[in-house]
Batch of 3 targets.
Target 1
Amino acid sequence: MKITKQILPLTISLASTLLLVGCLNDIPTADSSAPLEEEKAFVEGELMIKFTPEVESMLQTRTDITRSTIPSVDEVLEAVGAYELERVFPIDSRREEITRKSGMHLWYVVRFRGESVESVADKLSALGEVQRVDLNRTVKRAYNGKATPLKLEDLTRAGGSVGAMNDPLLGSQWNLINTGENLASKCIAGADVRAEGAWMLSTGSEDIIVAVLDEGVCVEHPDLKANIWVNEDEIAHSHEDNDNNGYKGDINGYNFARKSGVITWNHYLDSGHGSHVAGVISAVNNNGVGIASIAGGNGTKGGVKIMSCQIFSGNVGASVLDVARAMKYAADNGAVVLQCSWGYVSGTANEYDWGEQGFHTEEEWKMGSPLEYEALDYFVHNAGSPNGPITGGVVVFAGGNESAPSAGYPGAADFAVSVAATAADFTPAVYTNYGTGTTISAPGGDQDYYWDYKDDDHNYGEVGCILSTLPTNVSESGYGWMEGTSMACPHISGVLALAISHASELAISLTPDQLKEALYSTARPIDEYCVGTKSYRRYVADIGPLQPMQMDLSLYKNKMGAGQVDAAALLAKIEGVGVPMHFPNIYVPVGEEYAINPARFFPEGEDNEFEIVIENQEIATCRQSDGKLFFEGKKSGTTGAKLVVKGSRTEQHDFVITVRKGANSNGWM
């Protein structure tokens, strides 16, 4: 077996040599302060291996061991000075069966001393018992990210409230509602995500979770806090794993950069990027404060929840190992949309500007980053629920900011949604990647294009960027502008979360492929705007209007994916897609109760009445309280049951109750 050792630059909306910022403001400048220490491309003394299924029974059941008990493997480990063998994905008692079915339990981290990573990789990859070897690349920021803060005095007068929500800054959010007058010029009415039309159908559901893989989200931000995911089975700042999911104190997500349940956002090197992304998706709507968002509720009803899977913290970045763990964590803890404003530099990027090119083909990426691929594949197939509004998960990536004619991986993979960026007049943003691998476009801002917008309060087109939430250590007002495909990306994540929310409200269940097909088929064509040339001033925020440039828009025709996202059309379409939900089979331990809300399985569910009939009440009983059904396991066995729903119409759902030791909501452990 041959291992691919290619080390490639990675582009993250936060940035790195492995992750390079998807925010256009993150270009290197002469006055950048506190440059990050140069790091090696991969972690020395550490790599990941995946064993073959044939030796599964020989592996120790503990997650951290010193030897595998596989003779050929242990012989190599002994020779290279290995001192630890740790399972990549910690045991989550609720999800272990699914983990094993997917083969993810076969991945281990090997830690060793005295030999190079390449040498140990060659030795292990030669063994028949090892099917994959992956170097643990470092994920780091190459440049200091920066936002343009909103001034404190602009909090109440910038833009003004428009449309259905009373958020005072909504008038400055052309990306949500573009009246054609948001900017002084180069602005077209409707060049937005059509949020206002979508809000007539849904404003988001608290049952839907979006995992943000990024810098830490400011979970205390007054315009975000109510829509932050809370792990009800965990205790904040706990040193114990109270919910037995393998992570201690993960109350709002997990800090994979610092291996802690405490999400952080206030290091002096943090850019606020995670909070900015989160605000686009689900800042609290109609609360009379700050901005509006795509899926942030309507003031009386909460919006989609944001789970912070932190992969950057100040000058500390995660490794590919940590990123893979974050992906699986998101799926295992309820997220159905994976928001990833990062990716490798495009394989067609200009090497003079961007250094070594990234992966050129999907097969090359899969071979060069097998753990990352399998973690994403796990999310796609194992997020969601067969008893929920989506049976799987959707992964959304920024397409990249290298002006390259192909998107970067992983976003360019067939199963992912890869997002290009547009300006407020439907034209491609001057920095956006396009072409091969690009699937859809969304507003991302275009500061260099709006360089000539200037008044007493704004300089050089900042309002042509995306306005969203920021921590107060980045912006005293708590808000500011950023741009990039990393800003276009959360628009798609938010729209998808809104669509899944609507499916939940309609009590229908979609597959990820059905949802993506509806997303693409309802996008608005923008090829008519890909003609002529577009003038801009490169790096205007840093050096002023000194570099005039011309962009040939014809190069982008038919290459911006399906077109610009249309949230209103998407929500209208999914009403005819998917299948009605069915009340699920129930698994409950002996002597314990299992609670479930029946309303979420039926349209207008809260207005229905529910009656439960259990055939054998010696096995299980049921009581109703506060709108929930509480099933109690009396003794081991199985019994039939039926749920009679009485509302605008009467219907009956037959289901089975199984009582046994070791039961959980997914079946058996």
Note: Confidence is low (pLDDT under 50) at residues 1-22, 25-39, 665-669.
Target 2
Amino acid sequence: MVSAKVAPIPIHARPLLAAHEMARLFAPRSIAVVGASATAGSFGAVTLANIAGPGRFEGPVYRVNARYAELDGQPCYPSVAALPQTPDCVFVAVPREAVEAVVIECAQRGVGGVVLFSSGFAETGRPERVDQQQRLLTIARAAGMRLLGPNCLGFMNYGLGVIGTFGTATFTGKPAGPAIGLVSQSGAVGTALGQAQENGLVLSHLLTCGNASDVDVADQVAYLAADPACSAVACVFEGMADPRRFLEAAALCHAAGKPLVVHKLGTSSRGAEAAMSHTGSVAGSQAAYRAAFEQAGIVMVDEIEALLDTCAFFAKAPPPQARGVAVAAVSGGACILLADQAEQHGIELPAPSDATLAVLDGLIPEYGAAGNPCDMTAQVLARPQDLHACFEALMADAHYGALVVPHTFAYAAATARIDTMGRAAAAHGKIACNVWLTQHHGGPGTWESHRHPHVATFLSMRHCMAALAAWHRRDAWLRRRGGASVRLSAADAAARAAALIDAAPHDTLSEREGKDVMACYGVPVVRDLLVHGADDAEAAALSLGLPVVLKVESPDIPHKTEAGVIRLNLRSGADVRAAFDEVMARAKSQAPTPRITGVLVQPMVPAGAEIMVGGRVDAQFGPMVVVGLGGIFVELMKDTAVRLAPVGVDEALRMLGELKGQAVLDGFRGAAAVSRLHLAQAIARISELAADQRGRLREFDVNPLICAGEHVVAVDALMARAAPPSSTDDTTAAPPPAADSAETLAAPISAAAGAIATGRDPRSKEQP
């Protein structure tokens, strides 16, 4: 096997920008539009109208274009240098060829931030255009000036009336009440989502970053974390060269008490194509992102349609007072639909307390259902005082932390019930969820529902229940965060294991070598003897005790089951001798002919649940640990849990709880139940190996761990070394060298290939 080097794990190219460093850009007191124009539909004309229109930005807006003496009855200046004051933010709506001169002028004048709409820079992949973008960055950083773009749609600060874009933009007035800050690496997707304001959704900001030559998506999230105008942050995330900066921004959101909700674009697992282990096959780039984001307390939504509804819910919802959810409707069918979704998302719908039930029984007719779900019937709907009493009783019940009510028909008479449920929620410090079941999405009551500070609006029952489930997961994360995990392995485990890995003669360690490495970390492993002939195999089997297992050991046969070089449950010397000949013949028939070091003889481990635990080094996040069903099913079932390594025992227990097939641990069909604690301890130890040896091991499997009761033993191990050992390696397996600096990260091989690597929006826009 040819040695495969691990892709470098980047260190932080630069720290996050502080909010005050971006204040003049995103919260300007004065603005200039370079390229302001009288030509209808031009970028300069539209940008100027968006910013300086009635009810918009209240500070001075300067027009800059040498072709005009005035525009819209206001003075128009020939250059930034000629302005009567230095603007905080300059929007540049000129062709690419003229951009650099404008940026130089802004830097010399002391401008705080520049927004570049022009396209045709690094997103083209052309070296000279990449160099041109790099020069802009160099100029801006030397002057302490922030740069947004190029190739971006701009930004909106709705509270200040800054609608800073060259496109058609929604502005429904300055926000009031709980508001969402929206960050989108895709400008077009961001503005599409921004139109939700037309129905009443409250946004504080909409920030895009285009090529992200300077200010990027992580900086923007960090800025919103510090801005009191937003209560929660939503993000359309494509990717970035060092996503750990994004995790730092998430930490700032949590410190500010603001939930961060993310929809990740580009979910294919590109990292698994060259993987040799099961771990590498099931833990690709998307799995790494999900593991890192969830460990960081980020709420992830799988559908873009759920992003804003979920974020608006988190902007309004207080911490849950109870896990139970009450469902109340005037339609039995709607009750059933909600109950189905609740079950799918693990949402508890406990029965009302006796006191609550007594109130409901006195209000709901006999053909209704005074339970949970509660079918109030249209008769209760016709009596507002009874509707209020039902909502009040459910909200007062200690079993419930939230109330869900489907809005089945949009008409004026139904609008009042939104405030009714909202008042009941406010009175008890809880949240009411209005599921807009009617397909009249902009119908009567939409605006009132979105704008009510105690009512969360959902366009989907599924999204509602998923958000409630995420609410409880985030609450649990907040409660346990900060707890330190106790290391289980010995203090010298890393050094002893590193020495064994370095001493291995091949880049694919043998099973024996891999199990020796595992044993350094206290992972129980099955005994084995290496033999080279049938007579020796029989003698080894008798010394170990029958029944036994035979396995061919070869660095060129990583998956022994698929190659047919394993024989199980051999109960006599004759069986062992025959099996030796069979597996050797099978191994020698492989093409190309493999290197064979011998045959392993092992005691036959009693049957038990089979679990796979593996590790790999992700190019962006570093060491990861993967847990799934063992044997041949791990890749087939794709039922795995992934975390950044190392993990403690508690986190390992949570990983086991995420497996769809976890019932196999609980004595499935009469088998003995597995001690989850002992299994979790083994997982934690293996995760410590993954973290310690991140510079030496590319990927590895322990497949399977056979588990029965408190007995957990590794019966096979596959390890792929990252690179030949270096004399400079230390015993703690330091991480690989740092990646290139931020300045060189903006040089993609092509526009398509560079989109994820640099975290920029690859869509090239028409030049202004």
Note: Residues 461-480 form the longest helix (20 residues).
Target 3
Amino acid sequence: MSRRQFLTGAASLAAFAPFTRLLAQPRFENDPFALGVASGYPAPEGVVLWTRLAPEPLTAGGGMPRAAVEVAWEVATDEAFRNIVRRGKEAAGPRWAHSVHAEVAGLEPARHYFYRFHAGGAVSPTGRTRTAPAAGAAPERLRFAFASCQQYEQGYYAAYRHLAGEDLDLVVHLGDYIYESSWGRRHVRKHGTEEPITLEEYRNRHALYKTDLNLQSAHAAFPWLVTWDDHEVDNDYAADRSQDRDPPAVFLMRRAAAYQAYYEHMPLPKRMQPRGPDMRIHTRADFGALARFHVLDDRQYRSQQVCPRPGRGGGNVVPAEECPDLQAPGRTMLGAAQEQWLHDGLAGTGARWNVIAQQTLMARVDRAPGEGRSFWTDGWDGYPKARERLLKFVAENRVANPVVIGGDVHMFVVADLKTDFDDPGSPVVATEIVGTSITSQALSQKSLEAWRADNPHIKFADSTRRGYTSVELSAGSCVMRLRTVDDVTDPASGARTLATYTIEDGRPGAQREG
């Protein structure tokens, strides 16, 4: 083992060291709530509340003692906290980086609440959250936004400032919340440290991103659902295989550190606590009878990418005729168990809209203009039989209004999803909307335009803008607004709507407005 590999293992083991003291009234030299507050996973009767005590967030241990600290929380119907309806206490210890995941119950469905935390005389910022509608209820609307890919060095988070100002019920984050690597052009700020490998290094990388006040404001404004992609661990990793072809046992130690740090910094329920390198994050979330979200994990269980570059792992653009393994029927993006879980959730849904929240572009994209075909193997194009199984299941079971949302590729894409992309007459079985990145740089628009004629099912593609997507679901339609910032290098940038698309109830395929 190298020194860094040893440190990875040592850091993972050290995280399990027990604490022996509980500090009810600690003293802080700095604000222990420097990373803000968040809520997530709303249910009709409750929600998860999150914070992490870190008075020195970018130092080892966040500036906290190796002891547990008592953290009180309270939930009120008003911002002044005159009517507190629930309160409780948590022990935030070093095992989980002094993070708090308070699972509040006994709330009323479909209403807003305010929350805050107390520790050692310090009071956190106030957050606002909202519970889900009651099971079977038929709300008039559901408004949510989804976002992804926020490389810290490549831009400011002005997009989150505008997102926080919208009238939303929910935010869905689709991965690449942090980046382990430094890349790209014209950086506006720096990570300031090398690529994380140990638990402490991943904690500090998450903390750096969390210090951004616009990101904090978006967390404090709405409850979130989250899933990860590759950069939360390592670019293009697949299950236990890294891009750099590290020994799987060594890479799993790194994955364990990354998964733990991710859990420690997200408003996740305690049932999602990782166990070493394993962490179940895929889940369902219902919003009455109007919508069901199927939140997927396409990293932890996938088959290794085929036909990689010599001496490397991860994705590659390959001519289809030179890579017959692409069509191997047993290859999976989700793993057999999660694939079956998704089928069960789609078959058993009674929701009017079924939102499949996953990481990347699902529509087929032939990247070789003219004769021949080439595909990017890290996305769904690297797992065509798995995509075919899913879309055939959707079609054969007549799943109500399936809408696939994704990120990863740093561009807006609106596409028709079909069971047979080779047949122009094949019916559209689902609609896909891929959001652009919050900050991460993209392929050129010129490259996209070169592919357009070979991919007629793609109705819109734009890689020139950064931003997010807002969605309004109602009984009759799904309206999607592609929101962009004017200048990602300006923290005070304005924002605008690039395009608006509508899906009508019972008619897959998005139509552009205006």
Note: Confidence is low (pLDDT under 50) at residues 12-17.
